[in-house]
Structure to design on (172 residues):
């Protein structure tokens, strides 16, 4: 029993300075997922990527349609074709499908690489906005990941989002 009292007393003495410190800290949280989805810079980056890859997407879509058309022709007319003609079309289809798969893989890799680049830029931009707001509003600590619960009263996401919107308008 005496040991338990000592432990509780020690814990209370040890926590007292931290409790006082915590009451003096100005703490806030930010929802980074919401910022990355709703920030105008995120939407602009997405449009930029769509435009950047539109030509390649359309070219591959055209190739897919051509392959499908050849497959339909082979299925429809294969029985009346000569053996040599049917084999040639089958070999061409295999070759076209292989080239299409390779091109789709390259497109996917390039898109992933560019998406990661744009996401990195956006994260730096969001972090700069958080830092600026934190300094201007004199916050001691702003948390943005790994938060199990936060009172909405200390959520700065809306304030950061408004700042990002104003900066996007200023750049237009």
């Amino acid at each position: 029993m005496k040991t338990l009292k000592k432990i509780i007393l020690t814990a209370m003495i040890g926590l007292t300075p931290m409790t006082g410190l915590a009451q003096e800290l100005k703490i806030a949280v930010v929802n980074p997922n919401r910022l990355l989805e709703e920030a105008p810079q995120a939407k602009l980056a997405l449009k930029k990527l769509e435009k950047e890859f539109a030509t390649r997407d359309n070219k591959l879509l055209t190739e897919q349609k051509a392959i499908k058309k050849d497959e339909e022709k082979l299925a429809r007319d294969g029985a009346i074709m000569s053996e040599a003609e049917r084999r040639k079309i089958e070999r061409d289809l295999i070759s076209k499908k292989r080239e299409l798969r390779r091109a789709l893989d390259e497109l996917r890799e390039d898109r992933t690489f560019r998406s990661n680049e744009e996401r990195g830029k956006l994260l730096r931009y969001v972090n700069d906005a958080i830092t600026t707001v934190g300094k201007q509003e004199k916050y001691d600590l702003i948390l943005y990941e790994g938060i199990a619960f936060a009172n909405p009263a200390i959520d700065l996401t809306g304030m950061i989002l408004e700042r990002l919107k104003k900066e996007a308008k200023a750049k237009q």
Notes: The longest helix spans residues 83-136. Confidence is low (pLDDT under 50) at residues 3-18. The two ends are 70 Å apart (CA to CA).
